[in-house]
């Protein structure tokens, strides 16, 4: 009986001496995690797919800013698919082999890195729109945005081979038992990761949005304090384009704040390392919080962008299949 119970607690019962043990979580806790992660995965994939279809299909939505949101939605979409692998790891066992383990971490690294770099581009776009509005349409063009987004993804692909080089040479070399999925970065790789995908991007985003906030506040004060027009019938307000820029800045600001809220705890836990004071359960929670950000972004669009709500209605009611639907006025 004891032998059967011992084998039931192993990932690979036929490899008793070298198999990893299951996490041993209570069934209720495991079921809650299954339901939570499954729901998160389905919602993330579905909502970001709506964003991808909306911006890709409707010509009026293919603005430079929305192309950045499209890149972010693509990375978030794949994050939703990757959550499936987290579901497989709930019991603490990896059954897909060492090569698939390294492949999973490579895809995860590229997607999350590209997502971080895209948020930096969104911050730059917002900065130019608010702080240099007269030069925005000259500096921020579709061509430049496409080149910048492509550069982010290419840069992420290049960095992953630097960071994962040791794990690529010999997949599974850092596993202590069969059924484990572990990758380890050396000191240089860890420095590249922290510098280019945490400290650098977060610093740029914070500096830019502090500047944007200062300028936006000054513009709002100017609107309130502007004297009445010569006819005395109404108060002079900003141009319609300026108001749109302020609204877009507010929305993108929410996206960035939510992103940092979900990102910072995870990276702080990573920086603590194994010798830190963060418990394993906290690391798991921070990882799920990091993935949750990919589900929250489309909800933010639905809350602040009328064009997204309108496009979702058209897609869900299948009006998107009608001829000429690409030219519908969305904004």
UniProtKB/TrEMBL annotation:
Record organism: Oryzias melastigma
Keyword Membrane (UniProt): yes
Keyword hit for Cell wall biogenesis/degradation: no
SUPFAM superfamilies for this protein: Family A G protein-coupled receptor-like
PROSITE patterns xref list: G_PROTEIN_RECEP_F1_2 (PS50262)
Location(s) in or outside the cell: Cell membrane
Predominant place of localization: membrane
Membrane spanning residue stretches: 31-55, 67-90, 102-124, 145-164, 194-217, 248-267, 279-304
An example Gene Ontology molecular-function term: trace-amine receptor activity
Protein name: G-protein coupled receptors family 1 profile domain-containing protein
